[in-house]
Design brief:
The structure is a single chain. The strands form three sheets. The chain has a five-stranded parallel beta sheet with strand order 2-3-4-1-5, covered by helices on one side. Strands 6-7-8-9 form a four-stranded mixed beta sheet. Strands 10-11 form a two-stranded antiparallel sheet. Strand 6 and strand 7 form a beta hairpin. The protein is of the alpha/beta class and about 625 residues long.
Length: about 625
């Protein structure tokens, strides 16, 4: 026996629930014979993508009377049974390779066995590989005239653009709870079962827009063989009873903490998880909010929109607590935070309760400072500028009741969530195992022995945490209770005023400077030669001229012995005695061969001729050597 969602699959276009924007267009195109060669159906699960693809196959191959598909001919029955030879449903998740596409291309060219259209339905088409899409691209662009491709997917963004551009894309939407519950009512009546409207509405809401999920839930309820009621649906699906949840929600709205705690404890003892109870409360508050906004739902007595919004936000922010622990105490703490958040909220535009008292006290203080009685109900007149004193005078005695300003109310979980949002992701993780205690002007973080690692890291970043807490709560005292790692600090306080600078004392007069001592010896006059106008001076060298005249170009090797000073190998010659030179001009010193200014240029032009500096490679033969050579010859 097939499942109820298979038996309830539509066989005609009019049987499709919702999706009018898709079925009307396709139905008109098929009636006019304007059938596309490739379609792409995208949308959530269970909204009718595969059903619509089968209706196209039935309409294209129907042999029965109009309107098509008739649902009774042999072709329509074969398509419904999945045995039609020309309608092939391919699971693209398991047939996603190039070889699978190559096999499909070989079969595409064959004619239809029954003379109609060949329909290829590729389910979960986004699972195909990119290579497989590219292999199918040419066939998808220009298929034979008797072939229709239908691609169905839940993730159209994974389809490559070249395939999207060759298909007619239709997007399927989620179905509303009313549409789902309406079809479920018809299915229950067809099955001969009694079903309450509240139960069917709950099933439609739990289906989350998917018709197939709603039909599966209905089949689960019909399996018991009893009437389908709301209580039966809640018991079968493990949901807390709606009436008891709405009672707890009403207690939260009215601020009755005792009724809220007792009701939640009863549900917890009955086996319902803390997170499940909180989720039910959020749903009940959402229905009440919809009722206040006029868009349906069930009202709660004494509820207003700001209070409902604060309750919902406070309960929704308890996921982190349930991630650490989901016991009864965590459930009660979640309700406590919700009650505090609701009490902190007032009607839109309302003034806090202590604001009027604070304004009246400020008026009395100002009147006492001015020396005039305060008129109740009227604001004091402004002080004229002429009465404003510029010099600091001692304060006048103040009369009246000067009570200290009320302390800032204790921060709530919503404000602590604001502190957590100001921190980086690393510090958020370190704060998860901490137990947070909030009071007026005090925040205490407690770590147990199992969280020593997180406590040590929080202690290292204690100042950063304190700045974040002060930004959210104002002046506050932060305490870290973690055994040896405990720390305490106050953050957000104004800096104390700087002490007044002491008056500057006049500097003592300097003593008169002593007169300078007389010089012991008179200054020695400079010896300057007298000016001689007729003396001729040497002509000046023009600016930029070289101090040494450039040497003449050398074209042959010089005779080294002719140089003044000779070579290093020649015997030293005694220099003739010369008369003492005149003081001006001074003669140039004797020069050796290697000190000649052109020595480097000569050795570079005549390589191998000089072995050492100023020494020839082959010396001139002496007289004895010439004589011995003559005897040999």
């Amino acid at each position: 026996m097939s499942a109820i969602y298979q038996r309830a699959r539509p066989i005609r276009w009019d049987d499709i629930v919702g999706q009018e924007h898709v079925k009307d267009v396709l139905k008109a195109a098929l009636e006019q014979g304007r059938v596309g060669h490739a379609y792409l159906f995208s949308g959530p699960r269970g909204v009718g993508k595969t059903t619509t693809a089968r209706l196209i196959a039935m309409t294209a191959n129907c042999t029965g009377p109009l309107p098509k598909p008739c649902g009774e001919c042999e072709s329509c029955l074969s398509v419904r049974a999945g045995s039609h030879p020309d309608v092939m449903e391919i699971d693209a998740a398991s047939n996603n390779s190039v070889d699978d596409v190559r096999d499909l291309r070989e079969k595409v060219g064959l004619a239809a066995m029954r003379g109609g259209k060949k329909i290829y339905i590729l389910d979960e088409a986004h699972m195909m590989s990119r290579a497989a899409f590219n292999a199918l691209l040419k066939t998808l662009e220009e298929p034979p005239g008797h072939v229709i491709f239908i691609l169905a997917t839940t993730e159209p963004e994974k389809i490559i653009p070249t395939v999207l551009s060759r298909c007619q894309h239709y997007r399927f939407r989620r179905l509303t709870p009313e549409e789902i519950s309406g079809k479920l009512a018809g299915l229950a009546q067809r099955e001969g079962a009694d079903a309450d409207a509240d139960a069917l509405a709950l099933l439609g809401r739990l289906a989350d827009g998917a018709m197939r999920d709603g039909e599966s839930l209905l089949e689960r309820m019909l399996a018991a063989g009893t009437a389908v009621t709301r209580a039966g649906v809640e018991a079968a699906l493990g949901l807390p009873p709606g009436e008891r949840v709405r009672g707890i929600a009403a207690a939260l709205v009215t601020g009755d903490a005792g009724a809220a705690f007792s009701g939640a404890a009863t549900l917890y003892r009955d086996g319902f998880a803390a997170r499940t109870v909180v989720d039910g409360l959020v749903s009940a508050l959402a229905e009440a909010l919809h009722a206040e906004l006029g868009i349906g739902g069930t009202r709660l007595p004494g509820a207003d929109i700001p209070r409902l919004l604060n309750l919902q936000a406070a309960l929704d922010g308890q996921d982190a607590r349930f991630a650490r622990s989901a016991d009864q105490q965590s459930l009660e703490l979640a309700l406590t935070h919700a009650l505090l958040a609701a009490d902190r909220a007032g009607p839109a535009g309302a003034v806090p309760g202590d604001m009027a008292a604070r304004v009246a006290r400020l008026e009395r203080d100002l009147a006492a400072l001015r020396g005039a009685p305060a008129t109740p109900g009227h604001s004091p007149a402004p002080i004229p500028p002429a009465q404003v004193r510029t010099a600091p005078d001692p304060p006048a005695p103040v009369s009246g009741d000067l009570t200290p300003a009320p302390r800032r109310p204790a921060p709530t979980a919503a404000e602590w969530a604001d502190v957590v949002r100001r921190l980086d992701i690393q510090m958020r993780a370190f704060l998860k195992p901490a137990h947070v205690h909030l009071e007026a002007g005090l925040v205490r973080l407690t770590f147990d022995a199992r969280s020593t690692f997180q406590a040590r890291l929080i202690a290292e970043k204690f100042d950063r945490l304190g700045l974040a807490v002060a930004q959210a709560f104002g002046p506050v005292r932060l305490e870290l209770d973690a055994g040896d790692l405990s720390r305490t600090g106050t953050f957000g306080q104004d800096r104390p005023p700087a002490p007044p600078e002491p008056a500057r004392q006049p500097a003592p007069p300097r003593p008169p400077a002593a007169p300078p001592a007389p010089p012991t010896q008179p200054p020695r006059p400079l010896d300057v030669a007298p000016f001689q106008p007729n003396r001729t001076s040497a002509p000046r060298r023009p600016q930029g001229a070289a101090l040494i005249d450039p040497p003449e170009p050398i074209t042959q090797e010089p005779t080294w012995d002719d140089l003044p000073g000779g070579t290093s190998s020649s015997p030293k010659r005694s220099a003739p005695e010369r008369p003492s030179p005149a003081p001006t001009p001074r003669p140039a010193p004797a020069m050796d061969a290697q000190n000649h200014p052109n020595f480097q240029e000569i050795t570079s032009r005549f390589p191998g001729r000089i072995r050492d500096a100023g020494v020839k490679r082959s010396a001139a033969p002496t007289a004895e050597e010439d004589h011995s050579s003559d005897e040999d010859t």
